[in-house]
Amino acid sequence: MAKNNPAQQIFLERRTPAYWRVTINHPPFNIFGPDSIPQLNEVITALEADKELRVVVFESAVPGFFLTHYDFTRDLEESTSMAPGPTGLHPLPDMLVRLSRAPVVSIVSIRGRATGVGSELALASDMRFASREKAILSQWEVGAALVPGGGPMARLPRLMGRGRALEVLLGADDINGDIAERYGYVNRALPDAELDAFVEALAVRIAGFDKEAIAEVKRLVDHASLPPTADIRQEWDAFIASVNRPQGQRKVGELMKLGLQENADVEARLGYYTSTLGR
Q: For domain 10-195+203-275, which CATH number applies: 3.40.50.1170, 1.10.150.530, 3.90.226.10, 3.10.105.10?
């Protein structure tokens, strides 16, 4: 398939020198693909290098979708041929590892679906806050005979324990805001009407603190809690292998016939539709 013309999908707003907002705006479903990678990399590179930045918030401008899965309409070679990032990983897991390790506090504000890459971006961030009524998180891949590639097997058990992590990953179903909070998938699920004000107040508060103290606390917490880079590498390799397996290609093909990436109901209820495959 021919390459698409890239369009701006990820927008950076420097609200103050210490506080940035990153908005994902790639309607209709905020699908993440090869064109998204250099745009997100620009953001990650900028926040790593900035001497004044303390906190960055990721949010979505697309109703119903925070950030969803990888783009299955694109040739796989477009992704696999990309040069590794600074960590030596493929650019997607590379950026997520760098975000976790950056001397800047990263917060995601989840309203709508955080599926696949969206869940993985949330897990790589330092804090996650979700709309109680509108947030849906999932690692849907096993339902389509795929292995997640952005680090959730390494990160989820550290957040919620082995049993719950396996429930999320192997159940491959939608997790609402209440359950996500109970399991530790997110820090808090707030009433939708309160989410924006809460995240804004927390971000502004952190932005007013000392940069060096923030960075040192993060470094020490990271030392105790982040998975080794080698673990993330294994997940990306397993993802690529699973996409190339006949079972994965068949299941994704079935989803595409049902309307994946085109039908709003399929994207909004991906957990349900993956459960129908092969019936």
A: 3.90.226.10
